[in-house]
């Protein structure tokens, strides 16, 4: 039998591509969108206008524009292996996507083919026990945990790997970075995921009652105690995870008892003489430098080493700029979940958000997006809206004085400072254009306009 001609093979491939019931997306070795089939449009409900605008563009540009979040193609090119994850489409749909690299004879990626499955199938896969393993899955089991930056992807990779172990985990990082979500992520991917997740804010518990709250007490153990006694938070976490947040605020007396508990997984309730055994995974978190706290005598050194079996640093939002826009869009989507009309971010608005330092981290960004969703009347949130409704102290020092300027002055000043910073950081017009995700001609025109 004669081998099939190249033309016939190509024709048959295109017929299979077009006739597939699942959505199919084809990108080249640079992540540029080449083609997608009719099933993709049906499943995602994207408009013809959006499809036409997306053709020939790199996938990371489509992520920046909020068309898809995250991009499985980008991950396949980074990891050089098949990747499965949950993807959110601009239309609001969530789909299950699997990207497969196509290699040439030298082991180089020639293209990435992505299979996109119907949301009805996705709903059947959202139980934790059936969730696909994706390396970093920002939506499965942790609907608010969005990770696009290399820094957060590493955090989730480490968290996933240690989730099945018995190691105590210590989460470090500034307030508002999402340490509680990382703790829930570890719980959700571990053997106790079916058990309770009990969060405890150590700074919010009265110092005199700390041991009783944590370990419970026998009836009549102290003045004011209930005659029936009370189960402690440790007991409530049996079979699951105990998350001790702000652990540096724990009183010294309670620290000694926590140390004994971590060593034996057993404790005495206040006033009790019998030992209670529990099966609990303990995750601790703090926004303080515990080594410094130990040196000052405010925290037990032996407890520090005991609970820091696996320290994980959760970076601040200013150190993972790639997460700002995806998080902002995610919070806007959540704000619209109650029936309110959805809102989008202009490209300039996304750059404004990324220029902000976010001293309150993810928590501040979430509050800001909720405020903008409620206040901005237009469908699209602009850079002017960002500058108007955000605390200007978080912008670079060169942007000081925004509050006393008109909106146009604010926009112009921010535009100039952003361009100047990009040129200084990346050292050339083309490199700056790539970083800002605009055409080199735009950078050149504005460079001349601002005399840079």
Automatic annotation (TrEMBL):
Record Pfam families: AAA_lid_14 (PF25601), HTH_50 (PF18024), Sigma54_activat (PF00158)
Keywords in alphabetical order: Aromatic hydrocarbons catabolism, ATP-binding, DNA-binding, Nucleotide-binding, Transcription, Transcription regulation
Molecular function in Gene Ontology: ATP binding; DNA binding
Domain Sigma-54 factor interaction as annotated: residue spans: 145-374
TM regions (residue ranges): none
Gene Ontology process terms (BP): regulation of DNA-templated transcription
Protein name as it appears in the record: HTH-type transcriptional regulatory protein TyrR
